Amino acid sequence: MANYSADLDGVLVALADPTRRHVVQALGRGPKRIGELARPFPMTLPSFMKHVRVLESSGLIRTQKSGRVRTCTLNRDRLALLDDWLAEQRSVWEARTDRLENVVTKEENP
Amino acid sequence: MANYSADLDGVLVALADPTRRHVVQALGRGPKRIGELARPFPMTLPSFMKHVRVLESSGLIRTQKSGRVRTCTLNRDRLALLDDWLAEQRSVWEARTDRLENVVTKEENP
DNA sequence: CGAATAGTTAGCCACAAGGCAAAGTATTCC
DNA sequence: GGAATACTTTGCCTTGTGGCTAACTATTCG
Lengths: 110, 110
What we know:
The structure is a homodimer. By secondary structure, chain A is of the alpha+beta class. The first copy, chain A, has a domain at 4-77: Winged helix-like DNA-binding domain superfamily/Winged helix DNA-binding domain (Arc Repressor Mutant, subunit A, Orthogonal Bundle). Helix content of chain A is 66%, strand content 13%. The N and C termini of chain A lie far apart (45 Å). The structure holds a DNA duplex.
């Protein structure tokens, strides 16, 4: 589990920005170099690089430099953290729904 | 669909904070009044209220005042936006995996 | 070698986010 | 009616985020 909450926090902070979500989506189609990734966005390269670093430090992507080119890859495992959290929430309110149904049942058959 | 991206943005921004995630989790167990919700957190009420407003404007919770008490309720539909986005990502990279498998297959049977 | 390419570093700026204290407004209780 | 309760509003402060320009450091191509 290794600090689930802090990790989840990083992932959510990273995804709470449209540019970064677009990058995640683009990388879903396969690895890309920085320049290629940056092209669609109306911002300078240094600004774009900040987003890349946020994504990298959240663990959502990995990057690797070979020669003068840096290539980015999506790390799908990290998105599972979100799945897990959502599942947890669902389990919380399903438990509650069950309790409510018990109440209703008891009222129906007193 | 009504501006899916902006809505998703609001939801993710709201969830990208541990305090607000805890509130969502607490409300999963049922509606609660502001004071009750705020109690576990080491911050003043005005600060806490800012979080409540962020959650409310993201649509993740609804609030309603009766007398001097404001009650908060979780709006589960909003979490579905996240489910949808995750499903979309999965479909993107599953499509890619399929393409890769085609390549492998072609290489195996040239 | 020299020029073009691909990032990177450094430094700056504006504004949003998250926190506080203090004072204000309804409600509700005695 | 007066005191206690349950938020609300105001105003302020610090830090973090996202963006820019300009200058710098490799690589690679001709």
